[in-house]
Design brief:
Number of strands: 12
CATH architecture of the largest domain: 3-Layer(aba) Sandwich
Distance between the termini: 49 Å
Number of helices: 12
Largest sheet: 7 strands, mixed
Strand content: 15-25%
CATH superfamily of the largest domain: Response regulator
CATH topology of the largest domain: Rossmann fold
CATH class of the largest domain: Alpha Beta
Helix content: 25-40%
Length: 320
């Protein structure tokens, strides 16, 4: 494990930019792939600019991407620490966990996931330590996803829920899925996977059990396998709803999630505050207040689903 490179052993010294004559290095550690999420990273940069930061002269961003492989995060965190970042933006919680192990005294702004459940902070209101940021969890999100799915395809009676057991907050999503099924009086079937090679057998079992649709309940981990999952779903004529706009963009019928661009903009706010001297542990972790519904009309047409106007008018984005 590397020692904390950016800060002395006594902890956070604050006001990093005022103390440095060189551009501040902002580390960026992402579980995902470089090719995805560029609009969100652009939102982060734009918000930093709006806050008065000039890229190149006042800050530079060192990026590391795991390409959907959690096992790569520790080595990438080590490589990032060698660049001596003043602060690290980690997306999502598994990336933050990897960064904390390598540079425990470097401020970390986490985007997405539940840092409380992951043990990275004491509480949302009083994080303590060196981690703060933005959670994308909402207690009602699974219920809302199923509500929207049933609004688009009201004749569904048996729905499958797919969860990734590697998700730090899998119990949260499992309970949300069960609560959603009970609330909307549908018959639910559950498939939980720990390794990517388990996905095809899990989907095949759901098909054998006669599910008519699929809810991707949480987990960023399955997005990397999205094309394979959605290809199977299309062959089975399943409408799919995912808790990330990446799902609708990849071909699911719907997605409902915290507004990802807004979360990245809020991450810039945290970076600004910390670089100007605020202690990370004193900045409460925000939970989402803005959500976005994305509808993929290409998929609707392919499935022969006439999405009601009552659902279309609620959409933040419609993919034609």
């Amino acid at each position: 494990m590397l020692a904390a490179a950016a800060f002395p052993a006594v902890g956070w010294t604050g006001a990093v930019f005022a103390q440095s004559k060189q551009p501040v290095i902002i580390g960026w550690l992402s579980w995902g792939a470089r090719e995805t999420g560029e609009p969100q990273r652009a939102a982060f940069r734009a918000e930093l600019a709006a806050l008065g930061w000039k890229e190149g002269s006042q800050f530079v961003i060192e990026e590391r991407f795991a390409g959907g492989r959690t096992d790569r995060l520790p080595a990438l965190a080590e490589a990032l620490a060698a660049r001596k970042p003043a602060i690290i933006v980690a997306d999502p919680v598994p990336a933050a966990r990897a960064a904390v192990k390598v540079v425990p005294r470097t401020p970390i702004v986490v985007i997405r996931g539940d840092p409380v459940v992951a043990g990275l902070v004491k509480s949302y209101a009083h994080p303590g330590g060196m981690v703060t940021g933005i959670s994308n969890l909402s207690p009602e999100i699974s219920e809302k996803c199923l509500e929207l799915l049933l609004g688009a395809a009201p004749n569904l009676r048996r729905v499958g829920f797919l969860l990734d057991l590697n998700t730090a907050n899998v119990a949260y999503h499992r309970e949300g899925a069960r609560r959603a099924a009970a609330q909307h009086a549908v018959e639910a079937r559950y498939a939980e996977v720990a390794r990517y090679e388990e996905i095809d057998p899990a989907l095949a079992r759901l098909a054998k059990e006669g599910v008519q649709a699929l809810v991707i309940a949480g987990t960023a981990g399955l997005i990397v396998e999205g094309p394979r999952i959605l290809k199977f779903a299309l062959a089975e004529r399943w409408p799919v709803v995912g808790i990330s706009s990446a799902w609708a963009e990849a071909g699911s019928l719907l997605s409902y999630s915290a507004d990802s661009s807004e979360m990245y903009r809020r991450a810039a706010y945290y970076v600004d505050r910390i670089l100007k001297g605020a202690k990370p542990g004193d900045l409460p972790i925000e939970q989402p207040t803005k959500f976005e519904l994305v509808i993929n009309m290409k998929t609707a047409k392919a499935l022969g689903i006439a999405v009601p106007q009552s659902i279309l008018v609620r959409a933040d984005k419609v993919i034609e």
